[in-house]
Write a structure and sequence with these properties.
alpha+beta; globular; Phosphorylase Kinase, domain 1; 5-stranded antiparallel β-sheet
Length: 123
């Protein structure tokens, strides 16, 4: 799930990257990402992007429609490893706690990114 490419700005997101990440994670088995809409905002510690994904007809998989991308740079004074590891793990035995599926993480000395389900519609 760890990406070789660090996303350090939401504008780096493109159809090819989303397609690769979703296929590697198993969320997209057959087909392709057709397009996406990106809504960006800034928080105190991070750049946030909500991504609405569209798929080609006939695409197969869980095909998440709404993704949440969090980008933190090291100057944000944020501990990266605990958060990256938290979202990258599977918490299947947790009940009544919304833990989003993590599709990709990337980290370097420059910072990190986490791509996960966007739960904002319900939480």
């Amino acid at each position: 799930m760890q990406s070789e490419r660090l996303i350090s700005d939401p504008e780096q997101v493109n159809v090819g990257w989303l397609d690769e990440v979703l296929k590697r994670s198993g969320a997209l088995g057959v087909g392709r990402v057709q397009g996406f809409d990106l809504a960006c905002s800034e928080s105190v510690n991070a750049s946030i992007a909500r991504i609405r994904v569209e798929y080609e007809s006939g695409s197969v998989g869980t095909k998440p429609r709404s993704l949440f991308l969090k980008i933190c740079k090291n100057e944000a004074s944020f501990l990266k490893d605990p958060e990256v590891h938290y979202y990258a793990r599977q918490y299947a035995d947790l009940e009544d706690h919304p833990v989003p599926t993590c599709y990709d993480t990337g980290s370097s000395v420059a910072g990190y990114h986490i791509l996960m389900d966007d739960l904002s519609a319900t939480h």
